[in-house]
# Entry
Amino acid sequence: YTIKGVIETILDIFGIDAEYIRSGEPYLHGGRSADILSNGIKIGSFGEVHPSVAKHYGIKEKRIYTAEIYSDYILKNAVLIRPFRAVSKYPSVVRDLALLLDEAVEAASVVKSIKKYANDTLEKINVFDVFRGSQIPDGKKSLALSLEFQSYDRTLNDTEIKTAIDAILEGVKTELGGELRL
# Structure
């Protein structure tokens, strides 16, 4: 998630909107990698180097991560002049959620669903953990996300935040079969 955060920061600087899908690159670990798409075009890949590739280079005990971003796409599509948005004088509200999902559901699909069902106060979504273990049923995983809500004309209250989260949870349940992990 650290390397994804770095990539998102770089793309944000250049005004490039991106989405992430599971990577098919043979040198990357299938379950711990992603391709970067912008407007349906692959503009890079990142993730954990496949263990067999690492072993080939004499790396046996550590996980190695790599990222590749196609600079030609970024240079051709960069948006260096973006509309100015004032900093809100009202505080943001951060809520962390852990969602119980089928193993096959990708984090990118969850983020897309959250954006679809969220209201305009949702500013940021950060996926920060995937958990699998004895507390999680077979075939499931727990995906932890941090949601940041912000208003530019008022301080958000608990009722507004709860309403927004309830709408997000209902949408994720309907669309992806996910539920809040308690």
